[in-house]
Amino acid sequence: MTWVPFPTTPWWFVALLGVAGALVGEVLRRRLATGGYRLDDETGPLPRVSSRIVPVALALLWALLAWRFGPLAQWALSPAYLGFAFVAVALAWIDADVHRLPRGLTRPAYPLLVAQLALASLASGDWEALRRAAIAGAVLWTIYFVLALVAALLGSGFGYGDVTLAGLVGLATGYVSVSTTLVASYAAFILAGVYGVARLVLRRGSRKDDIAFGPWMLLGLLLSLVVQVRPLF
């Protein structure tokens, strides 16, 4: 495993992707604001957080990821993470609202992400990164599947949607390095734990409340991607 420094990404590329992210995010915002993703038994008011955070979040994410992955793999790697960021924002919003990660988003993301990562490897000749991504995705999926089985026996809210998302997180982070996958995994549990404790301290919930884990998995993924981590082995 090698240590690869951050690339020097042109400012105009970062700015261009930021603007594009805002425009695409506005389209996504309008879809999410209707609550059309809800099932018949998923009622109640829509999230109190304004949906206008969606285009802002996607603009920042696209600009950040453009800066992080711009010139890598002969510019072929950026589309993989930009596309996944779009799916991630939608999943985070939906999971925070109804505690569900729709298969209609997670399952199609697999072939799209794999195909884009494969194109990046074709452009750069780095097939080891693709192999590492596949292994990381399979390992993380298996770990979360076991956790979901245990949670089901204990009556916990940890669901199989998180299992499907875990495989995507493994693919996206494994392509960078094994250390990136580890950071994403630890960060998700730490962030979710801090959030849970904060809810108890502020008396906004109880120990029996289910916490949407998907947003914390995705936030941990983002942190691991944009923070350069030296490989541990």
TrEMBL record:
Keywords: Membrane, Transmembrane, Transmembrane helix. It holds the Pfam family Peptidase_A24. InterPro entries: Prepilin_IV_endopep_pep (IPR000045), Prepilin_peptidase/N-MTase (IPR050882). The chain crosses the membrane at residues 12-28, 49-69, 75-96, 133-153, 184-202, 211-229. Residues 84-196 form the Prepilin type IV endopeptidase peptidase domain. It comes from the Bacteria. Belongs to the peptidase A24 family. This is Prepilin type IV endopeptidase peptidase domain-containing protein. It comes from Terrabacter ginsenosidimutans.
